[in-house]
Design brief:
This protein is α+β, with helices and mostly antiparallel strands. The strands form 2 sheets. Strands 1-8-7-6-5 form a 5-stranded antiparallel sheet, with helices on one face. A 3-stranded antiparallel sheet has the order 2-3-4, with no helix packed on it.
Length: about 150
Amino acid sequence: MIIQAEVHIRAPLPVVWRVFSHLEDWKEWNTACNNCRFIEGDAITDGACFTFEVKPIIFPVRVEPRVVKCDPGREVVWEGDRLGIRAMHTWRFREHAGGVMLKSVETFKGPLLALGHLVGVPKRLHRLTVQMLDQIKRHSEACNAVPTSETPT
């Protein structure tokens, strides 16, 4: 099973990367992943391990992915196993049209996927991915916004 989505963010790459890579700040804007924290390491870098909860069905699922590749501002890949399912999540950042295209690709393998399809997990996971991308977009664009001064009339 593959879940993918993409969003165009009207903010410079350093801003988008900062929003994405500062996991300790996810609680401020990220409602797709809850209770995020590092288990090993203190930054999204090769070998770091972190944990968070997602709720693709009725009950939340805690995952503990490990970053297997980190090319800051270009690509991050993390992998993990949970409930008999192996997952790999790839995030790709590409400067485009005065902003950043951020693409998320999640690949899932395992015997329980057939059951997941029966209860609508792929659709729910896609919705969570789109939600997170939208929140990265909104937070990045807000961080990039320059206050304007209004002239009284």
